[in-house]
Amino acid sequence: MGSTDQATAQTHVSAQLFADACTVIPGGVNSPVRAFTAVGGTPRFITEAHGCRLTDADGNHYVDLVCSWGPMILGHAHPAVVDAVAAAAANGLSFGAPTPAETDLAAEIITRVAPVERIRLVNSGTEATMSAVRLARGYTGRAKIIKFSGCYHGHVDALLADAGSGVATLGLPSSPGSPAPRRPTPSCCPTTTSTPSGRVLRGTASRSPR
């Protein structure tokens, strides 16, 4: 049995779950990076995780090097985190109004990250990036932004121009609805300039008041 056939045999439950998901979710996933398109195969459907290990619907175990794309710095299902979440959930999940816990969290982050003086809490990295761009434009009066080629900076058109997930996608956008690489469309991102990561920008264009 070849490696591809073996992998398919070991993930047949995930494959069926993916087929089921495709009937009610466009593309079968709720984030393009979960689709496994760039690396082949079908997505692994995870049923549980503890510490640094994930378990999929077929019972396969994986060492988690992704950490839910960043936030799982304490690992999965850490007892202290589970207890804190359960205690908070017992008092209600969402109120549409300020809570004391928001202030406590903001103060804790400021204490641990010295350069930060104040903080705005948002629900996703996309919202954080959009807020940062809006703040920078409001403060400087400039409209143009610079992003790194082939990097994902949030799920918004002006930042998806020349996007991707690094080497995995060779910097190419994965959706026809995303701006073409190095050719931002005037309708959605005329103020976006893409540059290779790490390159020092030179010339008057990068220092213009735009």
Automatic annotation (TrEMBL):
One of its GO terms (molecular function) is transaminase activity. Its cofactor is pyridoxal 5'-phosphate. SUPFAM superfamilies: PLP-dependent transferases. Residues 185-197 have a biased composition (Low complexity). InterPro entries: Aminotrans_3 (IPR005814), PyrdxlP-dep_Trfase (IPR015424), PyrdxlP-dep_Trfase_major (IPR015421), PyrdxlP-dep_Trfase_small (IPR015422). Keywords: Aminotransferase, Pyridoxal phosphate, Transferase. Residues 172-210 are annotated as: Disordered. It comes from the Bacteria. PANTHER family: GLUTAMATE-1-SEMIALDEHYDE 2,1-AMINOMUTASE, GLUTAMATE-1-SEMIALDEHYDE 2,1-AMINOMUTASE 1, CHLOROPLASTIC-RELATED. This is Aminotransferase class-III family protein.
